[in-house]
Amino acid sequence: MSSLLIRNGRVLDASTGFDGVRDIAITDGKFAQSAPNGSPEFNARGMIVAPGFIDMHVHLREPGMEHAETIESGARAAAAGGFTTICCMPNTTPVNDSATVTSYIVSRAQQNAIVHVLPIGAITKGLAGEELAAIASMKKAGIVAISDDGRPVMNSRVMRRAMEFARSLDLPVIDHCEDLNLSAGGDMHEGVMSTRLGLRGIPSSSEDVMVARDIILAETTGARYHVAHISTRHAVSMVAFAKARGLRVTAETTPHHFVLHDKELHRYDSNYKMKPPLRCEIDVDAVIEGVVSGAIDAIATDHAPHAGNDKMQEFERCPFGITGLETAIGLSLEALVHTGRISLMRMVELFTTGPARVLSLAAGTLAEGATADVTIFDAERSWTYDVSQSQSKSRNSPFDGKVFRGGPVATVVNGRIVWSVC
Ligand SMILES: [Zn+2]
């Protein structure tokens, strides 16, 4: 455990609403009144100092597909993106549907990860959508939520039972909302662009009907329910409606869903192929509106590394998903803050107290005594993303070569600087 003094930064803490220049002292890995004499110092003048950012939706490919990402490399990419905590989805090989796999991930993370890694367990065995996974024992082993992400739970009876069970354990249920019968065979958003490009479409309704179903089941069961990577206007308004009714319903969106449109697909570049697909302008505007209004609680990256050969196939054959950890702060600043849609404080909230509340984590604060996780970023610094230098093992980002205004500067985990720009 270490001590550190972060000096002269503009501190933004969404847990208290504090916004002002002050020093942050860390002793023995916790925030403290003061740091011991001779502690290392970090000069954060002109920078934003915030509680450690949390990415509640990340795919690490360990166990099973370590050539695409490991817990170690994914954690390094997270640190380089300004994240101090990441939650990893269970679609590994084997699937994280038992305490054995959960414990494996937890111990690998303890040995190798430079940020906190919190596993999310499967809802159903093998993500098959039929039998419930070993949810209670996974919870004892350390999962913070359940999800079959990558796949929806198509069977409504199974989803209802999962919600009843999760409620008794006070675990949130995260759903990847996609009606597979409606989306079957689709490669991009169904609309004018898919017709023009001759690509098979995934209609917005494939997301909408599942969000509707899940909200009804959340009301029936009283479960905590969270919509992963929300992308359509109807889904956003249904979540707002559920919140207004007092249901425990929350949602996250990803930077690519509020930065990019389906128009990008004209390049037939597989780095624009993801699920849910990039939507049309009306949906993108509604997602941003949901971020502004509070219908959306968190920004998550859905970091989905794929090894080179997998993404180098023809468009229809290549897998869905892009990496996202290292570009999330830059994209959020660009699309939300620099455009004047939200304040810097609201952005900090979406990366800290927002996800912390969804998952009931004791994180997202600079309060004395709390674990000293800090994200230091610069809202103005100009930098260029070079994917060949990525800390991730994969290179599937559509943002290679992009010039950003603002980005992460240093990442502090347990009071230690685990990454910094220079
Ligand atoms: Zn998903």
Labels describing this entry:
five-stranded parallel beta sheet; six-stranded mixed beta sheet; 422 residues; alpha/beta; 14 helices; binds zinc ion
Briefly characterize the structure.
With 422 residues, the chain is an alpha/beta fold. The protein contains 14 helices and 20 strands.
Secondary structure layout:
Blueprint lengths: L3 E4 L2 E4 L4 E4 L2 E4 L2 E3 L8 E3 L4 E4 L1 E6 L12 H10 L2 E6 L10 H14 L3 E4 L15 H7 L4 E2 L8 H14 L3 E3 L4 H4 L4 E2 L2 H6 L3 E2 L1 H18 L3 E3 L5 H12 L4 E5 L1 H5 L21 H13 L4 E2 L8 H4 L16 H10 L6 H8 L1 H7 L14 E11 L18 E11 L2 E5 L2
Parallel strand pairs: 1-6, 2-7, 8-9, 9-10, 11-12, 12-15, 13-14, 15-16, 16-17
Antiparallel strand pairs: 1-4, 2-3, 4-5, 7-18, 18-19, 19-20
Helix pairs in contact: 2-3, 4-7, 7-8, 8-10
The structure holds zinc ion.
Can you offer a commentary on this structure?
The protein has 422 residues and is α/β, with parallel strands linked by helices. The protein is 31% helix and 21% strand. The protein is built from 14 helices and 20 strands. The protein has helices spanning 71-80, 99-112, 135-141, 156-169, 180-183, 192-197, 204-221, 233-244, 255-259, 281-293, 308-311, 328-337, 344-351, 353-359; strands at residues 4-7, 10-13, 18-21, 24-27, 30-32, 41-43, 48-51, 53-58, 83-88, 116-119, 146-147, 173-175, 188-189, 201-202, 225-227, 249-253, 298-299, 374-384, 403-413, 416-420. The strands form five sheets. Strands 3-2-7-18-19-20 form a six-stranded mixed beta sheet, with helices on one face. Helix 2 (99-112) links the parallel strand 9 and strand 10. Helix 2 runs parallel beside helix 3 and helix 7 (204-221) packs parallel to helix 8 (233-244). The longest helix has 18 residues, at 204-221. It is globular and about 65 Å long. The mean pLDDT is 96.
